[in-house]
Amino acid sequence: MVRRIYFDNAATSFPKPEQVYDEMNRYARQIGASAGRGAYREAVETGEIIRQVRGRIAKMLGVNCPESIIMTFNCTDGLSLAIKGLLRGVGREMAGREVSGREMSGRGGQVLHVVTTRMEHNSVLRPLHALQRELGIEVSYVSADAQGLVDPEDIRRAIKDNTVLIALVHGSNVCGSVQDAAAVGEIAREHGIVYLLDAAQTMGHVAVKVDEIQADLIAFPGHKGLLGPLGTGALYIRPGLEEKIEPLKEGGTGSRSEIPEQPGFMPDRFEAGSHNALGIAGLNAGLEYVEQQSIEKMRDHELELCRVFLERTAEVGGLRIYGPDDLAKRLGVFSVSMAGFEPGELAAVLEEQFGLLTRPGLHCAPFAHQAIGTFEQGGTVRFSFGPFITVEDVEYAGDSLRRIAQVAVR
């Protein structure tokens, strides 16, 4: 039987460190309680696990306010809260007062303008599209070059006097391009605009520091580079900004149970209902593993895999690799296409004949595929690396592509 090698870490990392499985098993069998819903030891221990995760994430981001870390169910959940919560909050605030005499689609306030890019995932594109219908917001989509890189100055040029949000994907889930997030942060600060960073592909892969990037909001999953299970994620909210963000849901928090309103303090303002404590226990172990290995060493390993992949596929006939050639500007996420193959066909051959698990298609980022010129062909086949992928695995992947190309030529 052909050995199966998982090359879909941009969707979710696999396998997880052994300690993730162990900690989830321990929680499920020995703890099992909901945080804040009891004074007994197990409930208190669950609360401590969640507190540890907030602390670990805050340390990773370089901030000293763990309560500003909101636990979410994935990156999409965090992005929806950031985008919809902020724009609804700002829209409601502006609707209550006259702003420069301009009207907002008959709502009594200013039209809200958002700057984003054509490299964004649907987790940003779709909430913005929904708010165009709901609030009449205006959205500017900044173009990227053929390597998937955005010029920060194009973002500056897209800013208007009614721009309230800049949303940027840090690392592309399509072709691995890493944007100059710090330069965009500087532009946002100069103009006093809220800056949202989608760090779905970069948290755990590269250093993401709030003081360097100057982001006001950072959303990321727990199940990718942080090596936790599915159903986990977080949103960093700059202290003070939470007052402008409307919660998307209300409910039990285990705090201030005597009042009918959602508590206004952090993190309870945005954490209604019982946490996914089982998943958060696994995330805690994943974060511990990342700390032990260090992001710097894991990044070095990923860059070595990238170098090998580019070298091994450099002369494969009919194969095209998308994304930056400069390793400093990319992640271990590679989109490829091969002459004579539809993306789904190539992915099927890679799995059935070589045991390589890849992802074909548009990868929930249609504008990104338009930017790199692959939309009309139905997208690409994506290889994405994780910490347990070896150099030998990548060499085998390159050799497999070479063999497929040789057969296709014949």
Q: Report Rg.
A: 22 Å
Mean pLDDT: 95
Q: Secondary-structure element sequence?
A: EHHEHEHEHEHEHEEHHEEHEEHEH
Strand order of the largest sheet: 2-8-7-6-5-3-4
Low-confidence stretches: 98-108
CATH architecture descriptor of the largest domain:
3-Layer(aba) Sandwich
The total of beta strands comes to 13
Question: Into how many domains do the coordinates divide?
Answer: 2
* Fraction of helical residues: 40-55%
Q: What can be said about the biggest beta sheet?
A: 7 strands, mixed
Overall morphology: globular
Q: What name does the CATH topology of the largest domain carry?
A: Aspartate Aminotransferase, domain 2
CATH-assigned homologous superfamily of the largest domain: Type I PLP-dependent aspartate aminotransferase-like (Major domain)
Q: Provide a count of the helices.
A: 12
Whole-Å distance between the termini? 26 Å
Outline:
The protein is an alpha/beta fold and 410 residues long. The protein is built from twelve helices and 13 strands.
Describe this structure in words.
By secondary structure, the chain is α/β, with parallel strands linked by helices. The chain folds into two domains: 275 residues, Type I PLP-dependent aspartate aminotransferase-like (Major domain) (Aspartate Aminotransferase, domain 2, 3-Layer(aba) Sandwich), CATH 3.40.640; 115 residues, Aspartate Aminotransferase, domain 1 (Alpha-Beta Complex), CATH 3.90.1150. It is 40% helix and 14% strand. It has twelve helices and 13 strands. The strands form three sheets. A seven-stranded mixed β-sheet has the order 2-8-7-6-5-3-4, sandwiched between helices. It is globular. The two termini are 26 Å apart. About 3% of the residues have low confidence.
